[in-house]
Design a protein that fits this description.
The complex is a heterotrimer of chains A (935), B (69) and C (217). Chain A has 935 residues and is an alpha+beta fold. In chain C, strand 6 (80-87) and strand 7 (90-95) form a beta hairpin. The chains are: A alpha+beta (935), B alpha+beta (69), C alpha+beta (217). Chains in contact: A-B, A-C, B-C. The interface between A and C is large, with 51 and 45 residues.
């Protein structure tokens, strides 16, 4: 039956454009401007969901954003606030948590078992026997879930779209009621840029469902907001939190191309105009569909032209409750009785299952009705102010927790219902004064402004719980009886009672419940409300999706100039930090063999490269490397290892001297950024008088390693003005010049792979050209591209360590078998004292080479090593099958006591089995003399 | 980057002193002197004083670790 | 081994049609959209390091946080260069591609006798550079960058550095003909990623890609 009323003066629906949507599979009519709840209510739907724990039928309570009775599934989106979300044509709406059907809920058997399921029952039941836990889980799962994620057909194409944005308003006003609107207008008028954020779909706050004068004032204020330049209005948006320095996050909905946008704002001044939230009354049956708050009634009637019921009983204790009764009367609802709590009236109990049938009044009379309206008080929405560090205090006269606006940080102000009461004019005047003050502070105007005269607060009777027990937290199904039980069991404070019962932990996060919880805990403990205090409001103010927090799913990716070539030639990508590197091109063993037998080229662009200039570079090198650098001549290259001040190896690389005061340092690719910072920290904080300039050129050069016995032949085909003969360009030297028509190239002769090799650094824009030229000109030499995996095999065969793979966060230089490199007679270098003391230590780990006695067995990296006594004495850090040797080659970190060549160790394999491995004579297992390198 | 601490002379330091420099922090509740690095910006290290209970920050009263040549 | 002129490539893939301008492969696209992004990587980019307030700073004539055009007699291709100072003691001089070699030489010569350590480093290949132009360019950037781009904080001629789309990038406000415009540059390897991120952010404002045209400054 239709509960839609005739046109109402303040209605937000558009009667010209009726459409349909579906509710649990059945078509339902709606108008633009209807929320899901108002559209359904207009058709007479009264039960929207079942409660979380006891599966009690629930109807509308507040008909607003935080209505706990109307969480629904829309398409593939669960937990939608049905009393806030606007309906759209064709929308598919389903109820949640009501298996198998909303009208018949099997889980309502819980209701009968309620005595056995008091607060905290899950701490006491379903404990033993523990082998039944999986079974308990399956049962509890069915009983305790919200909506459905995924798996539901959705007509929207693609995943929900999220987005982010930064904003820097001078003044951010949280709340678009009369005070908020006036504050925004005044602040903009004073020259500030303003962002006005309103949770609902239109500005106006409580004016929207008020009487004629309210609607006139609403219209005027809206006009002012629209016509005043400098105000950005965000409706259907909510301020999630306020952090240090007015860092404010806002969740914005209702944009055409994006579902949810997270606006990260840094506001110079924040004006909190979040208003008042009406409180439910706690009594038996207060959650039966048909019991609702006065604001719910006024919203339904005035905004959506929906009749909330036929026969109403109203419990009122303030002017808003009175106004609700008048509204009902005006639209033809039979207001059977008005109980005035200011004169001792009360409501004891509501009876009815699935629908209000009758209400028992304080004097014992039983009145049949289908709608019970309560207006028992207001809670100031002080969350943002609490987040700004202000603890609200209870004011017994007003029956409200209040903030003292003078106790806020200088960049936070408050206005409107959240700080006091008044007529629309008074609220707007206070808002305007506050907005002006906010603009002044934003402009850092040193002149002392006029103090904003405070709003008065109207007295209000303290009405929280009647004489029976009822629901306190509608989302979590916590009753006042549960709170009393909690207190009896020793949870005697608001914080403890909250945690024990989960009261205030639902989607409304306490906006409807906290004050009632505090009042009831106070009642149970015999303390006053002021003594009991309140719980702390923390961000987010409203639940927010992970999607909104994540924004666009994107991570930085770094590409080499040869990336397109790798992709075209079938490279399997390897993600290393943010770099995408070619792991191999389909045959890593073959690629490694090509290098040993002929020549290969590998893209090593991610290697860190730092340009160092200045008279003190050598001193810096001596400081950060463990070896000596003062005598490095121009044109020479040296290998170096860096340790932290704790002696732990942090990076290695080669550094070459290009000129008297010009060096080029290379680092590992993953260490590039860290080493740059490391050098800068020494130069800026410990040695600020040294003259060194450090410039990262990692990506200014495309780096290509040309390796193999025929690499020199190939190189000769591309160099133009550099003599690369063996005598002219010895091992560990550097040259600069022209390659393949490109000037400004740096070549060094080094050898990570253990073969004759050259590393070419080419200005990056020409990287692809040089790479392709090498491959083209080396065809007859059998040149082949090789990837990171082949390089790992090659270097492992040579026993060359990789920092971070063969060393860990505790490996000091000696542990990495680098003792020979460390020059302890240097005056100072990073890690010196620790390395001196490490020399004297009888134990510690050492890096050794290892091979398995069963040649084809290649143990997994990380496999544990056991000594003769079966105790763990080390682990394998690198492990591959060597194409050159036809057997496994490994590096391992082992205790000093077993680090002797020839020692046998047991490898504990991944599958639990065991194998034997032997410590090799040297780390290098291919060409240990290094003959090939120096050729 | 954490609390500012003075690096002992590596030639004369003892294990206890050196490891104190490496690992121990005073962790004051209140004003502390810290080193900060503007990684995404000017890439300068700077010394600030910060009140760890209120997050208020200020420049140090006396020259920090950036000693003049 | 005579070669035809070798082509340089930007890390940002140029949308077709592709042509060669000043030795660089660029897109030949033109756009009349209100908001455009153009790859300016071919520009010469020369870094200078010195003390932030010494003789070299004096010579370059641009303070930290600012960017300004200078007319220097750098050589045959002299003309305007844009001197930017996004960090104290660091300058990046932008010039048309053909002016690269002469600019480096001129800067080295001009600063060689300064009474302080000076480094002149050619970073033409080390940075990916884009220009965003249009009235809504600040709105586009506000989606990827947390800087306050208002007139008060970032007027025309400002040079800043911050995170843009999660990578460290320099941001220079350089309005063209009264139209709001920004130059954004990051280390080269993240160029394609940054470009894609900015295009994505600009979709709602109708952004289009335009191709590089000389002189570029």
């Amino acid at each position: 039956m239709s509960m839609r009323l005739g046109p109402q003066p303040g209605e937000v629906i558009d009667r010209r454009a009726e459409f349909t949507f579906s509710w649990n599979g059945r078509p339902s009519p709606a108008y633009p401007g209807d929320t899901i709840a108002s559209a359904l209510a207009s058709c007479g739907v009264r039960v929207f969901s079942r409660s979380f724990k006891y599966h009690r039928p629930r109807g509308l309570l507040t008909a607003s954003f935080i209505d706990p009775g109307c969480m629904v599934q829309v398409g593939d989106e669960p937990n939608v606030r049905g009393a806030h979300r606007l309906v759209a044509p064709g929308m598919e709406v389903r109820s949640q948590d009501a298996w198998p059907a909303l009208s018949l809920d099997v889980k309502a058997v819980n209701e009968l078992a309620r005595r056995a399921l008091p607060a905290g029952f899950y701490y006491k039941t379903f404990m033993s026997p523990s082998w039944l836990w999986p079974a308990y889980e399956r049962v509890l799962e069915r009983f305790a879930h919200g909506g459905v994620v995924g798996g539901v057909e959705s007509e929207r194409d693609g995943p929900a779209r999220y987005d982010k944005r930064h904003a820097h308003p001078d003044v951010l006003v949280a709340g678009g009621g009369p005070a908020g609107m006036a504050a925004a207008v005044a602040a903009a008028g004073a020259g500030a840029s303003v962002m006005l954020v309103e949770e609902e779909h239109q500005l106006g706050g409580h004016l929207r469902w008020g009487g004629k004068p309210d609607l006139v004032a609403l219209h005027e204020l809206r006009e002012l907001v629209e016509s005043t330049p400098g105000i950005e209005v965000l409706t259907d948006s909510v301020v999630l939190g306020r952090y240090d320095g007015n860092w404010v996050s806002v969740l914005q909905r209702g944009l055409p191309h994006v579902d949810e946008r997270l606006v990260k704002a840094r506001a110079k001044s924040l004006v909190v105009a979040a208003g008042l939230i009406e409180r439910p009354y706690v009594f038996a049956g207060n959650d039966v569909p048909g019991v609702m708050l006065s604001t719910a009634v006024r919203r339904l009637v005035n905004l959506h032209a929906v009749k909330p019921g036929h026969r109403a009983v109203v419990l009122t204790s303030n002017a808003d409750g009175d106004a609700a009764a008048e509204d009902l009367d005006r639209v033809g609802v039979e207001v059977v009785h008005v109980e005035d709590a200011r004169r001792g009236g009360d409501v004891v109990r509501v009876r009815g299952r699935g629908q209000v049938r009758e209400v028992e009044l304080g004097d014992g009379r039983k009145v049949p009705c289908d709608l019970v309206v309560t207006a028992t008080g207001w809670t100031a929405a002080v969350s943002l102010l609490t987040m700004a560090g202000n603890r609200p205090r209870y004011d017994a006269t007003a029956a409200r927790f209040r903030t003292d606006p003078t106790m806020l940080p200088a960049d936070v102000l408050a206005t409107g219902g959240v700080v006091g009461d008044g007529t629309c004019e008074e609220l707007a005047a206070h808002g305007a004064a506050t907005g002006e003050e906010a603009a002044r502070r934003a402009a850092k105007d040193a002149a002392v402004g006029a103090a904003v005269s405070p709003l008065s607060v109207e007295p209000h009777p303290e009405i929280f719980r009647g004489c029976t027990h009822g629901i306190v937290d509608f989302s979590e199904d916590v009753s006042s009886k549960d709170l009393f039980t909690a207190v009896e069991e020793g949870y005697r404070s608001a914080e403890l009672a909250k945690r024990y019962t989960t009261a205030t932990m639902g989607p409304a996060q306490g906006k409807l419940e906290t004050v009632n919880v505090v009042a009831i805990v106070a009642e149970a403990t015999g303390q006053t409300i002021a003594e009991t205090g309140t719980t702390t409001w923390r961000p987010p103010y409203a639940p927010v999706t992970l999607g909104a927090l994540a924004g666009r799913p994107r991570e930085p990716r770094r590409l080499s100039p040869m990336a397109s070539w790798h992709e075209r030639h079938g490279a399997v990508p390897l993600l290393a930090s943010a770099w995408i590197r070619p792991d191999h091109y389909g045959d890593p063993a073959g690629e490694a063999a090509a290098v040993r037998d002929g020549v290969g080229v590998i893209d090593v662009t991610p290697i860190g490269k730092l340009d160092l200039r200045g008279p003190d570079v050598a001193r810096l090198l001596n400081l950060v490397y463990v070896n000596k650098w003062s005598k490095l001549e121009v044109g020479r290259v040296r290998y170096g290892v860096m340790c932290g001040d704790d002696g732990v190896v942090i990076d290695d690389g080669v550094t070459g001297r290009l000129g008297d005061e010009h060096y080029l340092m290379s680092t590992t690719s993953s260490g590039a950024a860290a080493v740059w910072e490391w050098l800068e920290s020494w130069l800026q904080t410990e040695r600020p008088h040294w003259q060194v300039h450090v410039t990262p050129v990692t990506t200014a050069y495309a780096s290509i390693n040309l390796a193999g016995p025929r690499s020199r032949e190939l190189l000769q085909r591309v160099v133009e003005d550099i003599d690369v003969d063996a005598d002219a360009f010895p091992y560990m030297h550097v040259r600069t010049g022209r390659l393949a028509g490109v000037d400004g190239c740096v070549l060094w002769r080094i050898g990570f792979t253990g073969e004759l090799s050259f590393e070419l650094h080419v200005p990056a824009g020409y990287g692809l050209h040089v790479w392709e030229t090498l491959l083209e000109r080396g065809g007859d030499l059998g040149v082949r591209a090789f990837g990171v995996e082949a390089q790992r095999i090659l270097r492992l065969e040579k026993g060359h360590l990789i920092v971070g793979q063969d060393t860990d966060g505790l490996t000091k230089a000696q542990g990495a078998a680098l003792d020979g490199l460390v020059k302890l007679d240097k005056e100072d270098f990073a890690g010196l004292p620790e390395l001196v003391w490490q020399e004297d230590l009888p134990d510690g780990a050492r890096l050794v080479g290892l091979r398995t006695t069963s040649p084809s067995l290649v143990p997994a990296e990380g496999s544990q090593l056991l000594d003769a006594a079966g105790l763990i004495c080390g682990r394998i850090t690198s492990s591959r099958l060597s194409p050159a040797l036809g057997r496994s080659v490994c590096l391992a970190q082992v205790d000093l006591s077993v680090a002797e060549p020839g020692r046998e160790l047991t490898v504990r394999l991944v599958d639990g089995g065991a194998a034997t491995a032997v410590v090799t004579d040297q780390l290098a297992q291919v060409d240990p003399e290094g003959v090939r390198l120096r050729g | 980057m954490g609390e500012v601490r003075a690096r002992p002379d590596p030639q004369t330091t003892t294990p206890a002193e050196w490891r104190g420099y490496l690992y121990l922090r005073r962790n004051t509740a209140g004003w502390t002197t810290e080193s900060w690095y503007h990684r995404m910006g000017c890439r300068r290290y700077l010394v600030l004083e910060r009140d760890t209970t209120t997050n208020e920050a200020r420049l140090p009263a006396s020259p920090g670790r950036g000693r003049e040549p | 081994m005579a070669e035809t002129v070798v082509r340089a490539r930007s890390p940002i893939e140029p949308p077709p049609p592709v042509v060669v301008v000043a030795g660089w492969e660029v897109s030949a696209r033109r756009s009349s959209a209100e908001l455009t992004i153009t790859d300016h990587t071919p520009l010469a980019k020369v870094a200078v390091k010195a003390t932030w307030d010494g003789p070299v700073a004096e010579t370059l004539g641009v303070r930290f946080g600012h960017a300004r055009r200078q007319e220097w007699p750098t050589g045959e291709s002299s003309g305007s260069v844009l001197v930017t100072a996004s960090a104290p003691g660091e300058w990046l001089v932008l010039a048309p591609p053909a002016a690269r070699a002469s600019l480096v030489t001129w800067l080295e010569k001009t600063t060689e006798n300064a009474d302080e350590l000076v480094s002149v480093i050619d970073l033409t290949h080390g940075r990916a550079l884009m220009r965003i132009a249009g009235a809504s360019s600040a709105d586009l950037l506000a989606k990827e960058c947390g800087l306050d781009l208002s007139e008060a904080s970032c007027p025309d001629g400002s040079a800043l550095r911050s995170a843009v789309a999660g990578v460290a990038a320099d941001l220079i406000r350089d309005d063209l003909g009264g139209i709001r415009s920004y130059l954004v540059h990051c280390e080269r390897s993240a160029g394609q990623y940054l470009s894609s991120s900015l295009l994505d952010a600009g979709l709602e404002f109708g952004v289009e890609v335009a191709g590089f045209e000389l002189p570029g400054i």
